[in-house]
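This section describes the prediction task in plain terms. A model, or a person checking by hand, is given the sequence of a single protein chain and must write out its three-dimensional structure as a string of tokens. No templates, partner chains or ligands are provided. The sample shown here is typical of the held-out split.
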Amino acid sequence: MATESHPADRDEGDASAVHADAAAMPTGLTVKQEAAIIALLHEPTLERAAKKAGVGERTLCRWLDEDVKFIAAYRKARRMAFTQAISMCQRFAPMAAGILAKVASDPASPAHVRVNAAAHVLKFGREGIELDDLVGRIDVLEQQIRSSDQLKGTWS
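The expected answer:
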């Protein structure tokens, strides 16, 4: 089974990883700015990101404060990275739920561990129901708004 690597786990010399990240960059940025965005996503500090991108830390800070295209591209790249992380969480959710259920029902587990696992199962189940209810309520409200807009259009 193939697994996805976390950006921080990639080799320094992994050109394909950098190329894949760079391919997602919008046009209108310099090569150094593209490298800086990739570095910002992978490095823990501004200093290390600037060094990895081959720019000064003050330059990187200026881009983050003043360069509208750079800021927009960086925000988009962060959103894309976060979306991938959420997808990974969703992919592993059934396994995580199975582990919680297994621990909660394992008589060999200490009582406090079983109680904690059971509490998490209940909490996540309740939150799922609440989210489903909210989605249903929003759907009804959106339908009412559409119906109201259609009625207004016929009376105009």
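For orientation: The first helix runs from residue 15 to 23.
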